[in-house]
């Protein structure tokens, strides 16, 4: 069953919300990479006990800007949810996606508040901070995924059917789990780069391999290995899904995953060689989000109720005519 496309204004608005959210996410990474997470102290939602800081430092301005932009993102999420519910009939997938986008925006704010209130910022190198960073990354991916689905369904695409998907469902579920695991390892690796910067590539390798290395450094060395393995796995599974669900949208999404992930691997190598400069960390994160969005599109197209299924056609056996 397909549903009517949303109005042109809602389509543009939902796309704008997604793009803006990506900008806020990147600015949040900039806050972490510059060590500005403690710019407002252990206060939330106020900044150093003030609604508007009167004598802010640079770190305070960076953190305060992130809070202001995050607040606007919340307003946009509420607006998109209300508009999505009012403009679509009950059962429309864009309506459900808009509600989930708001849910994950709220949990995103709560996770961010928890990181500040628990003082998992600045030079805190605890395992607890690494765990919260992992939760933060997963929630961010879920938020971006829900917003991507709002854009997708607003164009009149068929809803998802999670049951009875067979091999396609298994392959896509494995891909989702793989990218979430890789994203968490990337968040931990980025935290390690921030807290334990290397003076050279050789110094960084010696840090990672040292018997006395901090747990974050030990986890950091796993990320490049996972990136190669998971990337190859996801690219392969995407091509298989394109075979069992041979629609143009599935093929486009599968191709996008391969291309963007190749760019992501190249960015990861550059990030490693350049010792993780802040600007390269942001590029790396943006590409990671684009890979995730491509996978979400692949899931939406491959698991749609109207997605075509490949049918194995047996060739008739030829029999020789009697002499």
TrEMBL record:
- Top-level lineage group: Bacteria
**The keyword Cell membrane belongs to this UniProt entry's keyword annotation:** yes
Q: How does it sit in the membrane?
A: Multi-pass membrane protein
Give the pathway. Answer: Porphyrin-containing compound metabolism
> Where does the record place it?
Membrane
Annotated transmembrane regions: 12-30, 68-85, 97-118, 130-154, 166-191, 221-242, 254-276
Which Pfam family, just one, is annotated for this protein?
A: COX15-CtaA
Question: Any keyword Membrane?
Answer: yes
Q: Keyword annotations for this protein? A: Cell membrane, Disulfide bond, Heme biosynthesis, Iron, Membrane, Metal-binding, Oxidoreductase, Transmembrane, Transmembrane helix
Main subcellular localisation: membrane
Stored InterPro entries? COX15/CtaA_fam, COX15/CtaA_HemeA_synthase
The entry's protein name is COX15/CtaA family protein
Origin species:
Pyxidicoccus parkwayensis
